[in-house]
Amino acid sequence: MNDLRIAIMGAEGRMGQQLVRAVAASEGCVVAGATERPGSVAVGKDIGVLAGLGPMGVNVSDNAEAVIAASDAILDFTAPAATLKFADMAACGGIVHVIGTTGFSQEDEAKIRAAAERARIIKAGNMSLGVNLLTAVTRRVSAALDMDFDIEIVEMHHRHKVDAPSGTALMLAHAAADGRGVSLEDTAVRVRDGHTGPRAKGAIGMQSLRGGSVVGDHTVILAGEGERIELTHRAEDRSIFARGAVKAALWGRDKAPGLYSMIDVLGL
Ligand SMILES: NC(=O)C1=CN([C@@H]2O[C@H](COP(=O)(O)OP(=O)(O)OC[C@H]3O[C@@H](n4cnc5c(N)ncnc54)[C@H](OP(=O)(O)O)[C@@H]3O)[C@@H](O)[C@H]2O)C=CC1
Ligand SMILES: O=C(O)C1=N[C@H](C(=O)O)C[C@H](O)C1
């Protein structure tokens, strides 16, 4: 089988550079292209040099459409508006679109579902093995405990993160709600301030902390009368997300069009 031709969108970003290194280190795929937005100082530069690997002979382009047309798969950890455009382009070619971007609105999510009628989209707020295992565990633990256990999810990220709660916190909250057989839309509490009154029974709370260089910490707290369970994942290095994204692209190459998650990729 030919090597999978992978393009990295937003190649100069924190995740973009990790993705270049992860593809270069993986078997069965090659870096076939890279993009940044028009006007970026990275445009025209060799992507290998930008990622600290030495020349790779692939330059950063500002023409996403041409790059996507020449690829079998794209790895996209950019921003919601950019990802929606890339999803339309990936759907035209029916290629694999790995979406790590977070911070989508409900309307954005509907557009991604529509694109998945033609593209093979693998989307997850967190591509690491550890967090996806934690998601599966959260679903099971929530199913085992009754509503007397209050669920709160606490996340902390670096000072540059622009969306809250994190995509991972939302994944974990959905898993907790699924485990309980309730809808997250009906139970989520994303902000508390002032005279809030007592906690509503069955609420699923989310709290976001921002500071320094924290890669990503998530804790699911299940607090009952006289006891408390805390399930924690700490990301120490962004390479865990990049490795997951490459695995997802390779997994997706022989799948039918549709919207998949890392839980599907990892078989959890
Ligand atoms: N699912 C997962 O496992 C993970 C998800 N993430 C998510 O990935 C996203 C990116 O995170 P991070 O790398 O830290 O952010 P960065 O801001 O470092 O990187 C994003 C990159 O995308 C670029 N970009 C934005 N719009 C476009 C466009 N239209 N065309 C091409 N490039 C574009 C940005 O360029 P510019 O600076 O010019 O805007 C930037 O280089 C976030 O949503 C984050 O939450 C992060 C880690 C893991
Ligand atoms: O922006 C980040 O950095 C991260 N974003 C993802 C999220 O929103 O959960 C994944 C990871 O926690 C790092």
TrEMBL record:
Pathway of action: Amino-acid biosynthesis; L-lysine biosynthesis via DAP pathway; (S)-tetrahydrodipicolinate from L-aspartate: step 4/4
Active site residues of this protein: 157, 161
InterPro entries in alphabetical order: DapB_C, DapB_N, DapB_N_CS, DHDPR_bac, NAD(P)-bd_dom_sf
Primary site of residence: cytoplasm
Family: Belongs to the DapB family.
EC number: 1.17.1.8
Assembly information from the UniProt record: Homotetramer.
Secreted in keyword set: no
HAMAP family from the UniProt entry: DapB
Localization per Swiss-Prot or TrEMBL: Cytoplasm
Name of the protein: 4-hydroxy-tetrahydrodipicolinate reductase
Domain Dihydrodipicolinate reductase C-terminal positions: 130-266
Residues the record lists as binding (S)-2,3,4,5-tetrahydrodipicolinate: 158, 167-168
Superkingdom, natural source: Bacteria
Catalyzed chemical reaction(s): (S)-2,3,4,5-tetrahydrodipicolinate + NAD(+) + H2O = (2S,4S)-4-hydroxy-2,3,4,5-tetrahydrodipicolinate + NADH + H(+); (S)-2,3,4,5-tetrahydrodipicolinate + NADP(+) + H2O = (2S,4S)-4-hydroxy-2,3,4,5-tetrahydrodipicolinate + NADPH + H(+)
Gene: dapB
Positions of the Dihydrodipicolinate reductase N-terminal domain: 5-127
Keywords (A to Z) from UniProt: Amino-acid biosynthesis, Cytoplasm, Diaminopimelate biosynthesis, Lysine biosynthesis, NAD, NADP, Oxidoreductase
Function: Catalyzes the conversion of 4-hydroxy-tetrahydrodipicolinate (HTPA) to tetrahydrodipicolinate.
Residues that bind NAD(+): 10-15, 36, 100-102, 124-127
Residue sites binding NADP(+) per the record: 37
